Structure formats: C-alpha cells, structure tokens
Amino acid sequence: MSCGIVPWASVLCELMTPDPCYSKAVDMQKCLRANRYREGVCFGSMSVMEKCCTRWKERSACCIIYEKLDHQVQ
C-alpha cells in the first residue's frame, strides 16, 4: 500500500495499515502466558518477534513496546 498520495492522506493510510509484527507479538504473548512467563520455553516465538522488529521497528507499535520492555529488563 502506498501512503504518499496527498499529505493528509498519509496519516490516514498509516493508521489503516496493519502492524506487520502484531501476529508475532500475539503468538509470543500466548506462549509466555501458557508457560507461566518462562522465557526459555518461548525462545522460538521471542526470536521471531525480534527478527520482525529488526525489519519493521519503524512501522510497528508492537516493536516500540517490545523494545521498551526489553530495555527495562536489562
């Protein structure tokens, strides 16, 4: 989807564009909840989320939250 048609439309277009990492974030949260937040058990889904955020962090609200939480833990 191209969001560069007219200046005011780009904001609307961005709001209508689905978050590219949302489904990965949901999968990661499901795994963490199901496994009582043991990160080692959910390493696979967390790794997928991290790869998604590496690619899409500028467009994903999920990644902004994920990175903030990751920095708080460290």
TrEMBL record:
TM helices/strands, residue ranges: none
Mitochondrion recorded as keyword: yes
Location of this chain's protein in the cell: Mitochondrion
GO CC, any one term: mitochondrion
Record flagged with keyword Repeat: no
Pfam family, one: CMC4
Main location group: mitochondrion
Keywords: Disulfide bond, Mitochondrion
Disulfide partners: 21-52, 31-42, 53-63
Family (UniProt): Belongs to the CMC4 family.
Name used for this protein in its record: Uncharacterized protein
Organism: Trichonephila clavipes
